[in-house]
Amino acid sequence: MNSTPNQTDSLVWSYLDLRKAIGIIGICLPFVLAFGKIILESPGIQSSISSYYYTVMRDVFVGSLCAIGVFLLSYQGYEREDAIAGRLACLFALCTAFFPTAPDVNASAQQVIIGTVHLVSAALFFLTLAFFALILFRKTDPNKTPTRKKRQRNVVYTVCGYTIIACIAVITLLKFLPDGSAIQELTPIFWLESIAIVAFGMSWFVKGEAILKDERIAIASSLQRK
Q1: Cα–Cα distance between 69 and 91 in angstroms, integer?
Q2: How far apart are CA 224 and CA 194, in angstroms?
Q3: N or C: which terminus of the chain carries fewer CB neighbours within 10 A?
Q4: pLDDT > 60? residue 13
């Protein structure tokens, strides 16, 4: 049975709302965790985003990752690789949520092992998000000339994708610093993770057409690769 115009419009808006929801959670998460902990528990910034698992903001941290994971699982995109990337990102997000990072002090052997699973899952999660931004989001219908807004969106996707990769690379290098180094007092991992998460959120926010939307294009055209 063919879809009616209203059904098509609803499908389009569902995809756009899903993308925007993922983007909003990503953009807001670092700020909600940091300010929530300061207001509800004690001043100070944790050493990493994952360390908020051991604060009053644990449920927000886990819940946000689960929400992002479910949204990504529901995301089908336009091609098979979109769905595969969404499912992998969902898996990595859930592993990051349910296998917590090892505590900063007095971690047991079991916690170290679980923390390693967390670190690997988080890295793969971020790399999958970079793949979305750099590869999937920048695709364009080969039969159409990219619009000015599409080219602008591609710039945003490119910046966001490479920002995520750069942050992960620097975080990896920081892991080799000796414990107690002066730079660690500035909580660089928290800030780098926050930048990467906001970049991820921004790429999805733009993909959801919250900004940089093409002008004078019928809503049905949103079903085409943007």
Answers
A1: 7
A2: 32
A3: N
A4: no
Whole-prediction pTM value?
0.85
CA distances in angstroms from 39 to 42, 43, 49, 53, 188, listed in the order given: 7, 7, 17, 16, 22
What is the number of structural domains in the chain? 1
Cα gap 180→197, rounded to integer Å: 26
Quote the domain boundaries for residue 164.
Answer: 5-223
Residue 77 has pLDDT above 70, yes or no: no
The span from the CA of 162 to the CA of 164, in Å, is 5
Cα separation of 53 and 6, whole Å?
43
Which of the pair, 30 or 149, is modelled with greater confidence? 30
Question: DSSP string covering 129-153, please?
Answer: HHHIIIIITT---TTSPPPHHHHHH
Size (the chain), residues: 226
Q: Are 34 and 45 in contact (CB under 8 A)?
A: yes
Please tell me what DSSP assigns to residue 211. S
Mean pLDDT computed over 188-207: 95
Tokens of 107: 């971690």
160, 133 contact by CB (below 8 A): yes
Encoded tokens for 86: 């969404």
Gap between the Cα atoms of 168 and 192, Å rounded: 8
User: With contact defined as beta carbons under 8 Å apart, do 161 and 134 qualify?
Assistant: yes
